[in-house]
Amino acid sequence: MALFKKRTAGKPGEWYYCLQHKKVEEGPECPAKDRFGPYTTRGEAEHAMETARERNLQWESDPRWHDRTTPEDPTP
């Protein structure tokens, strides 16, 4: 019997996208720091990077989040 058991977050049936291995995983295979998820379907996990890019673009173009001025844009 093992004295220490490796504990993982998540469970089978949850899908993740591993940033280190660049692949979809079911359940917790890699550490949480290296993955996006959980997703409810494999398809959602397969498109994790695309979803992240879209959300980043939305965030970057949202005027409510631009509270600092830059030399190119003097308005807050």
From TrEMBL:
Residue ranges with Basic and acidic residues bias: 43-76
Q: Where is this region: Disordered?
A: 35-76
Q: What is this protein called?
A: SPOR domain-containing protein
- According to its UniProt entry, this protein's organism is Streptomyces coeruleoprunus
